[in-house]
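Sanity check record (used in CI):
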Amino acid sequence: MKYLVNETVVFDTAEFTLCSEDSEPNCIKLSNSAGKVLEQLILHHGNGQVVTRDHFFEQVWTINGLQPSNGNLNQQVSLIRKALSNVGLGSSVIITVPKRGLKLSDKLRITALEAELSRPVDKVHLTDSFTGPSGSASGSLSLQQSTRLIPYIVMLLLAIFAAIIIYIYSYQNNNQPTYYFGKIDSCEVYTLRPVDDDERDDLTNDVRAVMKDNIDRCQPNSALLFSKTQAADKWVQDNINIRIFMAKCQKDRNGDLTRCLNYFLYNWTV
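Expected output for DNA-binding winged helix-turn-helix (WHTH) protein:
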């Protein structure tokens, strides 16, 4: 259906366009929601009836499976007012009736047209932001949509950051440096840190003690990885916080340790 408004503007409910019929034709396309809101205002024009917000919610959003809101309705009305002003009707033709709803000005003259009476014109799209014939745009709605995207952008950046941290952590773990300690009995022993000379005897005794209960012998292509950590405080050191880790590993063709059988001992003493 097409409607002629004040004998100067044609509103097409099929394409939701507002087209001026003056010497310099101008056509603006409304978003679907804005077009349906304007259509409801036109359908109720002429009898003094006010269109309630609940009616808009039902006919524009709910009936189409969409979620209505006061904010969305206000945005669509703002777009319609800008479009009406751009085609020469003025933004004040939409009247807000407090606590009741919206209506078109009674001064508007609206008549129904046959579809073929309205000539085609070039269209300027008005979707989420309003663009007039001069190419100027109002970014209020676009800004709100951009604002709604901010949480998703932040989540994406956090996910990327977490992935980078995990990669770095994994890379560092997979490339843990080892230090050759020496050969104890039949086993080559490596540590996770350099061992001072005054620690070598104690560490050798610790390795032998752990091997005694867990490892019989080492094959030529195998090695042991040993680590002992303990608190610096003497009382804590002697009572609650001694951890020993040992792994019996195979050596690959590059000499790297792989396929390890791990042993963990907590508060263990020789």
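Residues 47 and 249 are 90 Å apart (CA to CA). If this sentence no longer matches the regenerated tokens, the check is flagged for review.
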